[in-house]
Structures are given as C-alpha cells and as structure tokens.
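Action item from last week, closing it out:
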Amino acid sequence: MIRYIFALLFPLSVFSQAEKPQNGVKAPNQNSFVLTNVTIFVSPEKTIENGTITVRDGKIVAVDKISLITPKDLVVIDGHGAIVIPSFIEVNSTMGIPSEQRAENKTGPYYWNHSIRSEFDAIDWYKADEKLIAEYHKMGFGSVLIHRNDGLAQGYGSLMQLGTSNTDNQPYLSKAASFYSFRKGTSPLEYPSSLVGSIALLRQSFYDAQWHSEYGKDANYSLDALTLQLKKPAFFSLDDKSDVFRVKSFMHEFKRDFTVIGTGQEQFLGNAWDTLKVQLVIPINFPEAFDLKDPYLAHEIPYSELKIWEMAPRNPGFLFKHKVPFITSAAGHATAADFWKHIHQALATGWAVNDVLRSLTIAPATLLGVQKELGTIEIDKWANFTVYDQNPFLFKAAVLEVFSKGERKVYQNAPISDIRGTYSLNIDGAKYWLEINGTVNQPEGKVKLVRTIQDSLTLANKSDTLTSIAKITLVNNDISIHFIQQVDSEKQTFSLKGDINPRVYIFEGEGTNNKGKWIKWSALRNKKYEAKDENKQAWTADTLTIPGARFPNSAYGFTTPPKQSVIIFEQATIWTNTDEGIIQEGTVVVENGKIKAIHKGSGTYMKPNDAVVINARGKILTTGIIDEHSHIALTRGVNEGGQAVACEVRMEDAINAEDIDVYRQLAGGVTAAQLLHGSANPIGGQSALIKLKWGHYPNEYKIKNAPKFVKFALGENVKQSNWGVSNRFPQTRMGVEQVYIDAFSRALAYHQAKNGSTAKHKDKNAVPPAVDLELEALYEIVSGERKITCHSYVQSEINMLMHVADSFGFKVNTFTHILEGYKLADKMKEHGVGASTFSDWWAYKFEVMDAIPQNASLMTDMGLIVAINSDDAEMGRRLNQEAAKTIKYGGATEDQAWKMVTLNPAKLLHLDDRMGTVQVGKDADLVLWTNNPLSVTAKPLYTLVDGEILFDSQKDFQIQQEIAAERARIIAKMTEEGKKGEPTKPFNRKRRGHFHCNTLGEEESFEANEH
C-alpha cells in the first residue's frame, strides 16, 4: 500500500450544511491530502515529473513540482514515482439500468407510441453495480454517463461519479443528456417495423414536440421532455456506419446537433468526414479474429468481414488524421485488460497519446458542460484521478488507486521497491538458492537446496526437478514465502515471513516447517534482476503497409472513389432510342456526366488529351436500363405494415449503398431504378428514384429534383390474405376502397385547416394543426404533386382506384404488375395511366391466374406507355432478356421491346428529359454491349452512370484476382493470430435475403456470395 507520512494533524475548520443528521461519532475527513512524488498528466498538453497534488475537501488546491513545504494539517501520501492520470469519462453506458423495465406498463399522458420514451430518466432506475464499477476503475474511468438503450427516443442520461463509498453521492449530473436511436426497442406496438418507419415516427415526434411547446394545453410528459432536451447534449446511436447520413438529415431538418455514437467502421466512409462535420463517440472494442480451423468455412467469410477485422485498430488513427473530433468509449469491453489492449493496438497504427487522453477526458467533459470541474488535474477541479504503477499508454500498467472527489480507493498495493533478483537464502543454517522474477507488483519465485560449491556457483538448473516453485506475497514492508522442497527422501514445507530492508535488499524473519517447528531465516540479494522485457513498450508502431479500404467495403468496391472523366466511344453501333434510329460506326463523347456530342461515321473531331477512348467497333452502345419497380439498395425493411396508411415513410431514408445487387445490376446494364415500398398496406411509403451510383454514399444515389412518387397497393397483400391472424383494417377489398376515401378526405380537411390558420383574415385565436407527415404526403397526392405507382392485379380493383382518383380530381400515374391490364387497357388509356408489368409471370398466387405473356404487347398496341419491371434483385440484372420475351410472346418489335426497359420507364417516372435515349445533353447513362442487347448472349462491357465507369468487364476480372489474393493474405494473418493464443470467435454463416413486395421484417444483412 502507498505509505502515509503523517504530519501534525489539526482538525479542519471548514464546516458545511449537513444533508442528514450525524449518527454517532463524525467520520474523519478522508478527502483532504497531499499526493507527492508522482508523475502527473495534468492535461494532454502538460505533464509534471516529480509532482505533488494538494487536495482539500475533494477539490484540487495545488498542482506543482515537489515542494519541501507541505500543509501541516494534511495527510501526505508518497506515490513512489507512480503515474497519475485524470479520470476518464464514459458517455455511452447502460451500467446499473435494468433491462426488464418496459414502457408499456406506463399510464398517464405519454406519447401514443411506446418507442418514444423521451421522459425516461435513467437515475430513477439506477442500481450500483460494484463489480462493474471496479472494472471501469481499472480501465481508468471515474465518471460514467448512463442511459437506457431502448427505443427511438430513449430519454435522459445521468452522469454518475464512480467510487464514492456512499452510493447516494454517485449521481453527479442528473438529466445530463438525451439519447436516440433508429431501433424500435421493446415496444409492443407493431408500428414501426422497419428503419423507414422508425425514422418517420421519430420525425413526427419532433414535429409534435414543436407544436406542443407552442400550442399544447394538455399535459404530455414525452413531448415536454423532447422540448427540454433541446437544451441538453444529445447522442444518436448508429447501427450501421451509413446511419450517420440519416442522422445528418435530422440535424439539417430540425436545426439541432447530435453527437453520433459510431460503429468503429468510420474509416470505410473515407473522405465523407471532410464534409459531415459531426462529433463522434467511437467504440474501440475491436472484433476478434474468426476461428479458421475449417478451411471450407474460412472460404465463406465475406471479404468485408475480413477487412473490418484487419482495419478496426486503424479507425481511431484514421479519424485523428482527418481531424474528426471524437470521444472514445469503452462500450463492449468486459475487462480492463481488453480495453487497454485495444488502446495500445490503436496507438500502434497512428493514434497519438495526447489525443487518446483528450478523447477520454477533455472532449467528454466539454460536451457535457463539466469541463470546469472534470477532465484535467487542475486547481479548483474535483480530485478525480487514477494512479498507475507505470504509464498505461505505453506499458501494460496496473491501477494502484482511484480518487473520486478526493475519496481514495486502493486496488493494488504499490511496491516500495523492486525486490527481484537472485538471493542466498539461509534457513536455520541450511543454504538455498532463491530466484525472484515475475513483475514488480506480482513477483514469482524459485527455490533449490544448495549442497555443493558448484551448486552455489551455477545457482541451479531451472529444469532441475529439485527446483521448487515459491509463492511470494508482498504487503507493505512484509514479505511471505511459501514453498515445498525435496530434502533427501523427504518433502519439507516452509512458510516464511519477514521484513524487507530495501536499501541493502536483505530479508529476515521467522517461519515454520511442516513439522510445526519455528525457524529463523534470512536472504541476501547477490544479483539484481535483469529486466530484459520489463520496460518493453506494450506496442510498437505498425509500419506495415496494407491495402486500404474499398468503397464500398465490398469485394467489388473501388480502391479510390469513382469520378467523372471525358470518355469517347468510337465506331460504335448506337441505338439512339429516338426517331433517328440506329447510327452505324458513330462516336459518342461524354463530358461532365452528360452526352456532349454524337458524331456519325468516321469524321474527325477534337479529342481532349485526358480522354478515355474506347474502341467500340462491332459493339452496341445504348442508354442504360431503368427498372421502374425495384427493391434493391434498401436496408432494414421494405414494408412498414403496422398501419394501413404509411405514406409518411420515405424509402430514401433506407438506401443501402453497399448492396452487392447494385454492382450486379450494373453488370446487367441497369443504371437507374425506382425503389418502392412494399405492398403490405393500401397506401405505402414514398419512393426513392435513384441512379445506381456504386462507390458513392447513400445520399448521392438519389436523383436530384426527381418527381415525387408513392406506392399504393391492391389485392391479397393489402387485405392480408396470406398473413394469418391480424386485427389491422382492412381485411376485404371493399375495406381497401374505404381506406383511400377516408385518407384523401382527411388530407383535404388537414389542408383546409392549415390554410385557414395562415389566411390573411384568420381568427386570432385559431390554432394551426400540428405538422402531420402522413397528411402532408396524402395532400401531395390529391393535389397531383406526388404521383402514384400502384401494385395491382385484378381488373375490378384497378377500375376502383381509377374511379376514386377521378372522384378526388387526380390521376393514377402507373399500375405496376397490372397482369390483367389487357382486360381494361382502353379504360387505362382514357384515365391516362401507364403500365409497368412482368414479361411472363403467372400462376404464383390466386389473383394472377388470368395473367398472360401477351399482356405487355396488348397494352402497347392500345397506346399505353408500357414498361417491363423486375420487382426482384435477380431478375433486375437481366431485364434486357425480359424485354425480349415480349417479342417472342406478343410479337413486339425490337424497338418496342427495348423501349420497355429504357425510354418507357423514364417516361413513367417523368425523367425522359434526362435519360432513356442517347441524345446530346442527356445524362451519360450508357452501356456498351458485346452484341444485340435483346439477345441472351449479350454482355455489358462497360456501364456508365453520370459519366462514370461503374462497371468495366476487364477490371471486374482484375478485381476478382486482387480480392482472392487479399482474402488469402488476411486469412493467413488471422490464422497467425489464432496460433498466438489470441481469442477467436466462430463464424456463423447466414443467408442473405432479397426484398420483394410482400417481404415483412428485415433482411439478413450478410452477403454470402459477394466474393
């Protein structure tokens, strides 16, 4: 134990108001002292060697070099050269919060949906966990911000002071911050059931809070809390690294800041951090290597998972290099040893020690507004610091003591000196050899009886069977040695206890043997311990150059982000898709993402020096394929089916830029798509119109200024024919019609109330309606601003929706699937609606029994705009072949068939002014085919989106070879980790699903075939 050096003790004359009556004799003041002879990490920028810290009533009153003059009324603690570091502050913990408490048991004026739990206060449920507190102490933490990790709006977090003997004094700052996530949590309600639903609900609750704070008269604890939390730091927890773009959207929409609790994979977003401008909380709980004993299983591990494992320790260094502000979190660590192991791994790969300390102290203290009291070892701040036996940022250090508001907690006795070495041991005249090694704090010993001079000279052979292991215990100046020694044919047990003279390294004392006889003993060190590895740094700089992250982190990601360039296709057969028809041996020039020029024949023209020139002789150049009905590139749910009307949800909120199907469809010539909500409800969510921008961020997928669309649905899915038992309305086709009529009527009433509240001569007492995201979208439909794409099959229902639309004065834009379209094509033409159908699907459920493969051609003959769509990730990459089926079955011309997957879907999406044809001024979404694209033998050689080559068949083969080599290298590296005894985890193979119209729940996120 660190020794006390007592000066004259005088009672302190400072008194304070007692919080409760004193029971018995007043306890002595334990939080006033002088800690001297220590190295003090005052702050990341300042360190004091041989320093002293003076503390009164838990507050630091002096920090300086060792002084000969110390206050006479304070206890002096000699630190013996120990290291003192400001206590760390954890901002992401659920410590002491029971998980079984569920919000649905609440009664009172709360928000209608239990996923919004903004009123929850962690301090009301906190119960001290001494075991976990001790582990936090050993990591170096003195304060922990606790919260309940459950729901979208998770409520208040409280900053707890760890280590005080009275748990009543642990709360340091109640309602210190608020917490949010995109996870529904334990709410029993069906809504929300998807990421898009969660985002919509959270947005709606924020709008409701704004209205409630200004106009609300009735009590609502949840909305009141959301308003109050605007003045507090707010944390937003991510499930996926790309969620940061979704949080950024919230920040922009509601003009508020969030500190983002990241995933540890931030480096895989590359240069996005240059513009994101958010503060992060970064976990450093790096993943374990996979158990690779089974070579077949090792082959199944995706490249992305292997790369995440290898790159994880580099994440903090990456953020540090890019000057991204972040706080370090120990979340996910079970032991202090693992926490410091990961700190050292990160330091080895480019993180700086002073930044580590800043991210654990000053950064969290500043964010929480307690920087004047915590975070550094400075005057007027609380005495919150941790004492280590050596520098923990450089070595494997042990926590000796923790001070919390000056209150001292001892975890390990500090040695008064290093007693390791070789000793001559004398026990009642018998001579022994004693070797003490191990660590300074935990010495280990070996003993052997010395019989000859030779024994004395050579000390002992360590493999000698007569050498015994000695158990050594140190307590202050006392040493205990226990061992069993073979003497002749008898085993003798010795238990020795004595004093240490550290100046001359002599031990002496008494003990007993196995016969109970008292014996005297002594030991004299004759050789100092050679500390070969004792001061070996816990980490060395990792200078190994490894391939960096791909964008996206996938087997087919780019090593550098794609960019536009000047591209020239020479001597190509150009399918213009216009009245001009086919141009033989023409040239197309692409610049700045647009088609700049089209030259006929072999005429001369200026070629920029930096142009990429592609010889397209004998190849066919076309516009890119457009999928009018797709569910690729989405994540965490395609249906928000908890309610009959869900048009408040937006599919753009769930764009998944790492979906391997994006790359696969580029390889099939697809360049754009409409990402639709599923068909679980009569009125589904808002569509996302995207370009397949592989290698870009999710927000870059969206087509700028694209028309607004929403998904409607009819038939079996909507009335839940195949869902089993459900209580949700509607459950009949008649009920579906009533949902539409009711929804549009409510939208009109909402708009009227909204206009009435903003009218020039409005009633001064009129209260405007709260922003209702559902009704806002519904009114956009009624007003014609948002267009409908409707999942449909049966003739009678199709007629019904057109009639409802006519009744409210708007038009349906597209009937998708529409397998009975041939029955009422004349009525569809009269209404002005287009069709997006399958080429030859039928008989896969009851309501498609009347489907025929001539459907698309018959509707085309009637004069409708007809597209062929996929509604399937696999079919999406062969839409050229699906279009060709209309020639076989329906007698469509080649020109008609090709337009069904290019120009016609562009028209249905009202994007034909930008895409769908090869014309000057249009987007450079182009595909170079090996031969006629309507042939099953045709393959894309190049696919361009906005003038960027996002699929190159030659580079595709090269990438496959690169990834094979990279996988082999990482697997070998991971195997070596296992051989070293590092912990490993099994790889559990999952199967990745695809979204379809009727998919409920979330897909598996694992892509088994990406490599």
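Closing note: Confidence is low (pLDDT under 50) at residues 1-18, 459-463, 1004-1011.
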